[in-house]
Specification:
43% of the residues lie in helices and 6% in strands. The protein is mostly helical. Helix 2 links the parallel strand 1 and strand 2.
């Protein structure tokens, strides 16, 4: 059931200032031949439709107030896919990350807290990769 942006803001106790979209559904098995329509539909609903609908509901109120921030989180693989990757490739991949480790939940949370802060007022419409340098060396 869809609600209006006004209803969503009222349910949250007033005008929403920050929307953090952190929901995701990873499709496994990863073989395209093994995917079923229900799984594809569920992943699309969570990964694509929900963030778009939430943004569509809440962004107009933020714009009307002249303030607000929307932070969408995703996997580093969302930038250019997971070609030729599988779960067993994760450990060897860590060796290719300059920091030699995956980011911690705290490091991700710190980035999320930073983006809607006054210290990041001029950071708009960009991708901030909290990945230990992986995206920098991967695209090189």
């Amino acid at each position: 059931m869809l609600v209006s942006g006004r209803d969503a803001e009222r349910a949250a106790g007033g005008g929403l200032h920050i929307l953090v979209d952190n929901a995701a559904l990873l499709i496994f098995p990863s073989s395209t031949a093994d995917l079923v329509e229900e799984l594809i539909d569920a992943a699309h609903a969570v990964n694509v439709e929900a963030p778009m609908l939430l943004t569509g509901l809440l962004a107009p109120g933020m714009a009307a107030r002249g303030s607000g921030a929307i932070v969408n989180l995703g996997s580093i693989n969302g930038l250019d896919g997971m070609a030729d990757q599988a779960l067993e490739c994760v450990r060897p991949m860590l060796a290719t990350i300059p920091s030699r480790r995956a980011s911690t939940p705290e490091e991700i949370a710190n980035a999320v807290l930073f983006l809607p802060s006054d210290d990041a007022l001029n950071i708009l419409g960009t991708t901030l990769s909290v990945d230990g340098g992986y995206s920098a060396v991967r695209s090189a």
